């Protein structure tokens, strides 16, 4: 009975993680329309770093010392996954709908799979190859709004290109995390990356000349910052890794396939975005592709879950 309750509680937390990460697109859209990207990024990770440090100290007693090699890797993680990703995230959401952005970013597992093949020489199987093709077709449908000639004529919008920048940053962030977590626990890696990223973001945020006006931010802006920093970053990552530890990366990774679905649902209900046919068709292709890309995970757990940051960690590191 206790095991049944614990497993259900883990599934509940993973379900909440999907909601947190889906709502992050809504909060990001709200901030993107009111604050410049570096300011939004800095405030998000200032909040996240504060709570991550508290959580890490409570869990492990102290932050471990890191060597030069680990410092270099963490700086790379901060530049790609914290600074670069969030600059593209907030910049892109200024121009396109949150629902479209979430669908484009669902390309993450396919791009990571391609990078894994190029960098780590991981082999494609028929499921992964088919999944990548389906995801790309779905992304083309979403980006082009159902008109492929838009892409071939080079008429992709600025917002779409910026969100594609998120996909590139996330891919390198994930694979670098795979290397870093051979020696450090996942939550420690995330904490250090957030701390370094926050420090890097200070100067560009100040130069945007909006950070100094923080006393004028309204409830909606502060609420969005807290949703992104605490729920989207801290609780999202902590509970996700707890889920991986308790039920395994394959089962936990399945939940992440529904992040763009919840993001789209929230965008319609909260932001009043319209659900167009190209988004629905593209979503079917992308989600099917994500499932097939990760299908190998059910047979080979150590290579599972490339759809989210650091999911392919070694379970012994947690």
Short characterization:
With 318 residues, the chain is mostly helical. The protein has helices at 2-32, 37-60, 68-93, 98-105, 108-120, 126-144, 149-152, 158-180, 186-207, 219-247, 249-256, 259-270, 277-293.
Overview of the structural elements:
The protein has helices spanning about 1-30, 35-60, 70-95, 100-105, 110-120, 125-145, 150, 160-180, 185-205, 220-245, 250-255, 260-270, 275-295. The protein is an all-alpha fold and about 325 residues long. It is about 75% helix and about 0% strand. The longest helix has about 30 residues, at about 1-30. Mean pLDDT is about 85; it is low at about 295-318. Helix 1 packs antiparallel against helix 10, helix 1 packs across helix 12 and helix 6 packs antiparallel against helix 13. It has one domain. The protein contains 13 helices and no strands.
- Proportion of helical residues: over 70%
**Count the strands?**
0
Cα-atom radius of gyration: 19 Å
Structural class: mainly alpha
What is the topology?
Blueprint: H1 2-32, H2 37-60, H3 68-93, H4 98-105, H5 108-120, H6 126-144, H7 149-152, H8 158-180, H9 186-207, H10 219-247, H11 249-256, H12 259-270, H13 277-293
